[in-house]
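Workshop exercise sheet. Pairs work together: one partner reads the sequence aloud, the other fills in the structure field after running the prediction. Swap roles for the next sheet.
Pair: D.N. / O.F.
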Amino acid sequence: MAQSKGLTETYEALPKIAKLLIQLILGAVVGGIYRIVRYTETKNVVTLVVGLLVLFTGVGNAIAWVVDFITELLNDRITILAD
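Structure field:
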């Protein structure tokens, strides 16, 4: 039987250019959803709290969008407060 990948692993397996385009267009929403899904996989409460703040606060969206875009560009994955 084949192992199923987690949702975040599926996202991380996308080509770099696809992830950068997704971050550029939908980055504020994707960053929050990514962190909430990551919480379900790792059970790290900080990741859940940051994910909710990113989704529901305007300043959190703007900051997370920039940070996530830069980490995608440099590290090829969302790394800041997403573990």
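Discussion prompt: Helices lie at 7-12, 16-42, 45-56, 58-75. What would you look at next?
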